[in-house]
Amino acid sequence: MEERNAASLRTHERNVEHYQGLLRTRLNDVETRFVERRLWEERFAVGMIKFARRRLCSERPID
What's the number of domains the chain is made of? Predict the structure, then answer.
């Protein structure tokens, strides 16, 4: 499970970089809005994965 979350996190972080790069190019208004929405969604996904990871770590019993 942790391995899958790590891979998912890396994928979302790469997508964030990709969309940030697209915003530095010349886009029309429709394209800009689309990319900004996708960037928000990817950042949200990154945040959710990190939140879940912190939560799981805090819930693990101490031996």
Answer: 1
